[in-house]
Structure formats: C-alpha cells, structure tokens
Design goal:
Elements lengths: L3 E5 L9 H5 L4 E4 L2 E4 L3 E2 L3 H8 L5 E5 L1
The chain binds iron/sulfur cluster (SF4).
C-alpha cells in the first residue's frame, strides 16, 4: 500500500475547509488554517483533499 507525505502551505491556505470535508482523517483546521494531522499517511483521500484545495496549498507525495 502506498504511503504519502502530506504538507499544507499555511501561507496559501485560506481556511475554506474543503480538505477537511473530503478527508477529515488527514486534515484538520486550527486557528483558520488547515494542517496535516497525519503528515505521513496511507489514506488515499489525502489526494482528494489536495485536488479539492482551491489555492493549491496541499502537497501530497508518494514515498
Ligand atoms: S482546502 Fe486548501 S485552502 Fe481550504 S482549508 Fe484545506 S488547505 Fe486550506
């Protein structure tokens, strides 16, 4: 099973909540900014979160 490194660029994030809506297991919002609560994950929805982000703040790289 692939594993992913997940990063959220806090400078870009506008706190819209799209990533948490599609992948609440990996993303969480704290103080109006999202962060990866699972920065290393095997959850495929991390990529959906990245796709859903309107400002391309999320990077998901396969390890
Ligand atoms: S989808 Fe993008 S802009 Fe919206 S909360 Fe998540 S990281 Fe931030």
């Amino acid at each position: 099973m692939p594993r992913y490194n997940v990063k959220v660029d806090k400078e870009k994030c506008i706190g819209c909540g799209a990533c948490t809506a599609v992948c609440g297991d990996v993303f969480e919002i704290k103080d109006t900014k999202a962060f990866a609560k699972e920065p290393e994950t095997d959850k495929e929805c991390a990529k959906e979160g990245a796709d859903a982000c309107p400002v391309d703040a999320i990077t998901v790289k396969e390890k």
